Here is the input.
Amino acid sequence: MLPGVGVFGTGATARVLVPLLKSEGFEVHALWGRSEEEASCLAKELDIPFHTSRSDDVLLHQEVDLVCIYIPPSMTRQIAVKALGIGKNVVCEKAATAVDSFKMVAAARYYPQLLSIMGNSLRFLPTFVAMQKLLVEGYVGELQVCDIRVYGPSLLDEAYGWTCEELMGGGGLHTIGSTIIDLVSFLTRARAHRVHGLLRTFVQQNNSIRGIRRVTSDDFCFFQMLMSGKGSCSSGVCCTVTLNFNMPGSFVHEVMVVGSAGRLIARGTELYGQRNGSKKEELLLGDNGWSGPEVKAMSLPQIQGLSSMVKALRQSFQAHEERRSWARGPVAMAPTFEDGLYVQTVVEAIKRSSTSGEWECVEIMREEPDPNHNLCEALQRNKM
Amino acid sequence: MLPGVGVFGTGATARVLVPLLKSEGFEVHALWGRSEEEASCLAKELDIPFHTSRSDDVLLHQEVDLVCIYIPPSMTRQIAVKALGIGKNVVCEKAATAVDSFKMVAAARYYPQLLSIMGNSLRFLPTFVAMQKLLVEGYVGELQVCDIRVYGPSLLDEAYGWTCEELMGGGGLHTIGSTIIDLVSFLTRARAHRVHGLLRTFVQQNNSIRGIRRVTSDDFCFFQMLMSGKGSCSSGVCCTVTLNFNMPGSFVHEVMVVGSAGRLIARGTELYGQRNGSKKEELLLGDNGWSGPEVKAMSLPQIQGLSSMVKALRQSFQAHEERRSWARGPVAMAPTFEDGLYVQTVVEAIKRSSTSGEWECVEIMREEPDPNHNLCEALQRNKM
Here is the structure.
């Protein structure tokens, strides 16, 4: 039986997500928005019976068993951790910092019977499922290089807000780069151990953001990741990513993996391959002719990835009689909160690299940093 | 009147160059090869009346007024400097080191009346001439990013040789990257002041290179250049370049420049553009249907660039009655030996960066390094 859903957020993703949920048979019972007005407006548009600007009203809602959190990164941790504490299943977007991500991991570990997945994933997209399968089967031989680019229009909201602020989790690296970092770890079954990057904000002011206000979030970013796998399989793989959001028009979303025996290229949602012997690319997976919702701010792979995730959620829940129970199988490939922490850690290492100019190590947080850490150190120094 | 030509080299470029020279009306009088056999073989194939393995036989040849040098980088400096000293006009490929490049600059400065240009240039290709013109005219607005990729088959010769050796000037960065570095400085009218890069040799052995022999030259390289222009125009431009020569099949040669108002993209020899307002790319310069010679080891932009250069050489020389005289106009856009030194300096800075992992400054050599430098320092230290 499908659980009732509560949605947090009134942005582009929430606007796409609700119709997708409904078309898979989920009932969306409640919508949360930062202001009563935003919530009311979108609830009316999407025909959601209850709306509010108080998070508890959704979290404690009787009919809500699954909470989908698509809100500014700086608010994600608080809602996600609380939802798990109340016993709700959680699908959410990334948090703003590694510390937040770590707290979410702690909560997810504490409630292992609850579903907790990162919910803006390219992993579910059939294109990348097929790509990963072909990589495992050895289509490209020994993997050498991942070469990825995403070009698109500005990610800034119309009005000044968190999308303009690097420290609030805005910017191409945090928003789109994070989905790429996750995707690469999924495709290569390896993690970045060293990264290097450069971030730029070419457009610091525009028609709606001016005066004393300036954009601090990146609109251009390239980064490199050196991967190290569990086996020898993906060790030594070099990954280069170019993100450019000063290119109005439709998104370019290209993921290429090159190995000793061939290559695979995902252009948008289409998958192409070429083995070293052959003269031409072959189409391995065509465009399925998307007829679902579209928004300007999201690329087709993102939207269709979201759609595939919702399908997987349906399969996961409908296997069970009880509304809150779910089967692991259909969502086994989903990124966990631990994957979310890894991604956040890589994002922060790339930002450090952009400042230091050096290769930075990716070191996953193992315990929560003590807020009194500096104080303790000072005290200890005094004692000595 | 067109000068008689002597060609150094029996490789892919020489093989393409000779027919191009002939079709523009140049007479190729002499061919030099490293071995008598190589020279004889290609001379017969290309119908060149004289061949030799002794460089002086070409340099001192009565009918030769223009020398085209397309030989392994480590040999280039010696022949180029000698040719200028004998009073011949010189078109040549890059040298192996910055010191060699510097010596070539010194020779070119000493004989300013002689033609001395770097002869494997993309600058002459109509695609890039048009791109540069559109950049000056402001098609893309304020330039922000250059994003360039060249993918192709292995650059290694069949047998073990200089192409396998990094120190001999082999590898994707030195061979193809150098043409891109030159192109970017032509397009942006700026030079790299800081660079960062990573080189890899994924294929260290193959069917013909094995046993104790290993390839040391890079088959994969990405690098970033931060540009600084004379004016403010191209300051702050970020340039990212990805080179991958583990991709058999036809070359991918894509040069994209992105600015505040639009972008220009050269795919192969075709030029596309998109202004920020418009929804679609427009074709600005189509493929002219190349019917000249082709070789597997060179991309179409390289071959057609060579062809355009030969055309410019014809225009430059035919303006004058005297065989050795030439007009500056038609070859004004050609890279000089000073440009060659700049390119070589950038190549070496990128290699340093790949080792150090850090951003490296591009510092052009201003005086020849004293071979006794270390000795002098030691003596001075002793004195103190």
